């Protein structure tokens, strides 16, 4: 295919943002135009991503739709392409961004144009991360996403927004400086930053451990893994609803994707060596943050801590190096993207009406908000991992992979499933059931058309992929199988070479 479809996906939101930059926001009519432009751009991008998924050949493991152009003095190329792993994240990104734009145009009252520009630029950068086939290009997209997110939290966030924005920025930036040094070292030792070439050449075993740790420092913060997770609850609580949605649904997945593409793909010997470390940190994240979630009084904080626990399952699944474990971790990330987005939007619905996120403010909502109660129940059960929801598929496959590798690790992780059910059902019971004692809730309105549409759009794939995960599994199967084969092959070759 000659048409540069991936570059179009990356550039289209930025072109839309450029158009908005020169738009006038003074009149009501111009504000409407701004909204329609942002909606149109994100809808077209979502449509292109679905078309790309249709065109994608699931039977081959090679990168497809590859585009390559000389960029930095000829030694670093702009190179993009996708495989079965990255295509799902691109579709998730365009889908969530579209729903965020629909949500924002009704809820953001001040500086709407600037907010939409930030979201569109962020979409370009996020798609770029999942398409990059060059380490330098990946790094630029990966770090570039910090800037619009920093502005979204810092300008449109809550009372402590500046503190939270700087904490988010400094944590993630410090981790990434080491990754930049590692990329420079890889270039100096391998004479290329082309990911496909590096897969073939392999990384010198003498450098792998240090390089793995440098990449880990960046991905662990962004995932976020325990103990470098403390920026996440602050960022979520202070971020506007849409900021929380993009942070939980997409930005955390960029680090999970990085673990698959780089930590496992490029550094097999180091990955094997550090697997006990990943297992330990993942299990602590699953158990500890689930217990912390049980203690929360703020709904956003509870969901933020549950995100850390769910991403603990993701990292655990990846480092089992089994087909089920890695497939489970990818499906868990896609499912968590849908479910966490829905949960944060659900909290936003209540916050827009009552201006409180405290759990004790609510109770008995089932009698005044029946539509909301049904949809929140679906997302709560998906977060718990109930069979019939997308959350079950990912957790089940991860635990299957973990049992193949270590019975003890899988057993401890299973306790996290029970704790997850405890804090999510506890949250649902306190907010939805019980007596309606707060008089402010008597006149509260149920979901409006826009809110109902957005939450239904998230509920449908959550249930569909819970009952029929085949479209996801068939897309990733060959690419995951190739990743594991390549990992085992490189591990053997490099170990023999080292020996």
Can you put this structure into words, describing what you see?
The chain is mainly α. The protein has 19 helices and 2 strands. It has helices at 5-21, 28-55, 84-107, 112-131, 135-144, 146-156, 161-190, 195-201, 205-222, 231-238, 241-266, 268-294, 299-318, 323-354, 370-384, 390-405, 407-432, 449-467, 470-498; strands at residues 64-72, 76-82. It has a two-stranded antiparallel ribbon. The termini are far apart.
Q: What's this model, at a glance?
A:
This protein is mainly alpha-helical and 499 residues long. The chain has 19 helices and 2 strands.
Q: Numbering strands along the chain, what is their spatial order in the largest sheet?
A: 1-2
Instruction: Determine Rg (CA atoms, Å).
Output: 22 Å
Low-confidence stretches: none
Alpha-carbon distance between the two ends:
45 Å
Topology, element by element:
Layout: H1 5-21, H2 28-55, E1 64-72, E2 76-82, H3 84-107, H4 112-131, H5 135-144, H6 146-156, H7 161-190, H8 195-201, H9 205-222, H10 231-238, H11 241-266, H12 268-294, H13 299-318, H14 323-354, H15 370-384, H16 390-405, H17 407-432, H18 449-467, H19 470-498
Antiparallel strand pairs: 1-2
Give descriptors for this structure:
single chain; globular; two-stranded antiparallel sheet; mainly alpha; 499 residues
